[in-house]
Each structure stands twice: as structure tokens, then as C-alpha cells.
Amino acid sequence: MPFDELMSKGIELMFLGMGTVFVFLAVLVFFVTKMSELAQKIEKSQPQPQTQTPRPTVAATNSDHIAAISAAVHQYRSKHK
Question: What are the extents of the domains in the chain?
């Protein structure tokens, strides 16, 4: 096979492969977009529950916990100067 024929076959194969990938990706984007639109329609059609958001609770700080944490931090800092 001459070099020119091999090059033309290689270029033909390259365009065939790139075209196949392009078509596949275009179809994939199309279907993902349509599925997203369908999911949004389904979400809008379902009634949303009317619930109140719970208020965040503030944990009471225990003085024993604060003392233990302070001692641990002091001990760590004294060892790792």
C-alpha cells in the first residue's frame, strides 16, 4: 500500500471516530437536558410539605468541659513549642 493511500485511510478513520464521538455526546447532552426538564416538571407537580424549620438549639456549656479542653490545649502547647 502506498503512503498516500494509508494516510487517506487514516484520516478517513479519524473523522469517522471523531464524528461518532461527537454524535454520541450530542445525543447524551440532549437526553440529559430532557431528563432534567422532566424531573423539574415532576418536582413542581408534587405538593411541597409545609413544615416549619426547627430552630437551632444552643447547647449549654459545661464548665467542666471548658476546663478539660483548656487543660488539654495548654498541655499540647507546652509539649509542642
Answer: 1-47
Exposed e or buried b per residue across 63-72, where buried means at least 16 C-beta atoms within 10 angstroms of its C-beta: eeeeeeeeee
The whole-angstrom separation of Cα 68 and Cα 71 is: 5
- CA dihedral sign, ordered 41, 42, 43, 47: positive
Report residue 68 as a C-alpha cell. 478539660
CA-to-CA separations, 23 to 4, 19, 20, 30, 35, in angstroms, rounded: 28, 6, 5, 11, 18
- The pLDDT tens digits of the residues spanning 7-62 come to 999 999 999 999 999 999 999 999 999 999 999 999 888 877 777 777 766 666 67
